[in-house]
Amino acid sequence: MAENPNFGVVWRGYHRGQVEQCLDELRAELAEAVADHEAAVSQVKDLEKQVAVLLEDNQELTEALDRVCQQPIEPDGLTERLRHMMELARLEATEIKATARAQRDRDEQRRKQVEQDFELAMSVRRRDALRAIETQRAEAAAEAERILAEARARSEEADSLRAHIVSQLEAANKVLEEDRVTAER
User: Which domain holds residue 23?
Assistant: First the structure.
């Protein structure tokens, strides 16, 4: 665009001063727009550089995070807050382990108590069973002794009866013999 265009003056045209003033304003706005555009282009270039730097930093941080996630955490490399959180987690883990050990010990004590109670109950049952067996054996022995005594008594009675019968037979034989002898005479 020309810096100072010459407008011809016409009967029904525009006022030259107004046109020049308008053009000056447009030139100023255009110059301002060009300056803004150049500043924006410069700012875009700066932002592109910053984005590139941030992308590079992001890539480095991602790689560092991957390395940190793959390696065990060392307390020396942590911030104070993370150290505190790690210490709290360690204390909580210790407490959980202690609680688990205590529960295991209680369970072991309970198991031993149940085992002792079972052994005691079995001992009592065994003792009672042995007593019952001994009682039954004593009763059976007494019954056998009674039966044996009864059998002896019957045997003695039978022997006595047999002896009585034998003596009666002998007496009868004697009488018969006497009768026969008397009859023969």
Answer: 13-71
Residue found under tokens 């911030």? 79
Any domain includes 85: no
The answer to whether 16 touches 7, Cβ cutoff 8 Å, is: yes
pLDDT tens for each residue of 24-36: 888 888 888 888 8
In angstroms, the Cα distances linking 66 to 52, 71, 86 are 21, 9, 19
Q: Is residue 109 part of a domain?
A: no
User: Which residues of the chain fall below pLDDT 70?
Assistant: 1-16, 68-78
Comparing CA positions, the residue from 73, 76, 75, 53 lying closest to residue 65 is: 73
Q: What is the pLDDT of residue 57?
A: 84
The structural domain count of the chain equals 1
**Is 160 within a domain?**
no
Establish if 38 belongs to a structural domain.
yes
